[in-house]
# Entry
Amino acid sequence: MPHTPSRESQDKDFFSFDQVINTSDRILKLSEMGIKLALLLMI
# Structure
């Protein structure tokens, strides 16, 4: 049996980990924008 599935899962894990970092970065930026917008609307 070929051992490609294990390599695939490793790549997938790394990719998902990278994706999580990118997603959290985006969420932080979005929340920052949301806070700024909320402050502008409140003034």
Notes: Residues 28 and 34 are 10 Å apart (CA to CA). The longest helix spans residues 4-42.
